[in-house]
Task: inverse folding
């Protein structure tokens, strides 16, 4: 191994812009990350972007669960119209709705705000405190 080789602490974070792997970088006291494409978000920007990605993925899961419930309902109606048993479809639909309800409650709860105010200030937005 060359003298220039350095074993960095691996990071399991991905770039919020492109989804690529990130490497941790320190520039003085500033913690930032660099992806293989060249995006360089600061830790604060990463925290805010990660929250936005998390919220979007949870919302997509909610949509998928509601679609599953609707598909199960439609299939159950079709199966019953043919005189067949629809118990498993009814159970799967009810399960999807139950899980969607839990996910909706999670999405509606307040989150600890970290990083978002920082990014809003940098983009010219004013963060208004919630009561």
Result:
């Amino acid at each position: 191994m060359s003298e220039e080789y350095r074993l960095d602490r691996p990071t399991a974070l991905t770039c919020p812009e492109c989804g690529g792997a990130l490497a941790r970088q320190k520039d003085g006291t500033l913690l930032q990350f660099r992806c293989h494409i060249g995006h360089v978000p600061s830790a604060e920007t990463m925290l805010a972007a990660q929250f936005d990605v998390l919220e979007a993925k949870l919302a997509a899961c909610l949509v998928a669960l509601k679609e599953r419930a609707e598909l199960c309902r439609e299939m159950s109606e079709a199966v019953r119209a043919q005189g067949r048993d629809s118990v498993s479809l009814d159970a799967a639909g009810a399960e999807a709705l139950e899980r969607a309800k839990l996910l909706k409650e999670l999405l509606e709860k307040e989150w600890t705000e970290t990083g978002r105010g920082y990014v809003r200030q940098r983009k010219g937005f004013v963060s208004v405190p919630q009561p």
In short: The first helix runs from residue 43 to 81. The two ends are 57 Å apart (CA to CA). The beta strands are 22-27, 30-35.
